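Q: I'm writing up a methods section and want to include an example of the input and output format. Could you take the sequence below and give the corresponding predicted structure tokens, formatted cleanly so I can copy it straight into the document?
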Amino acid sequence: MRPLSPGGALRRIVAFEVDQLIWGALWLLLSSWGGAFYLSVSRWPGDPRSLAVLAGLLAALGVFLHAIYWVLFVGGCGQTPGKMILDLAVISRDGSPVGYGRSACRWGGMAVAALPLGLGFLGLLVTREKRGLHDLLAGTRVVRATSFREVPPGLPSEGSVRLSKFTDESPLL
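A: Here is the clean output for your methods example:
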């Protein structure tokens, strides 16, 4: 079996920016609706305290949406939309699916990696497997999805594998 090809740094950066655009558009839409609702039920013109509360709520919404976006996509299917477009997949270090717990750890690791001026992401440039601090903390790696989907010689192809766990002899059918 050939080794999995790591996702390159430039490809990962572009995928991240695509994801940020998608997440940002979602946050902008929801925050404008939420902000309009908040301002309609509070006094207007807003006093500084009311506007500070609104800013805090919108920031909390942004963090919540960011976590949901990254954890659900990576934990559920191993890819965010940006990674899907750029043919990347997140897998655990041993090649198994990431899962939601490891995905949440990876998302938290992204915040840790970004804190010291983004130095935690330098691993994307200098390590052989292109793993940043968030990948090291979560035990994940990003690979080219086409290399991940390849079927090793000697194993049956997707078309010949029965996807259902039930057989014709199953008492449930």
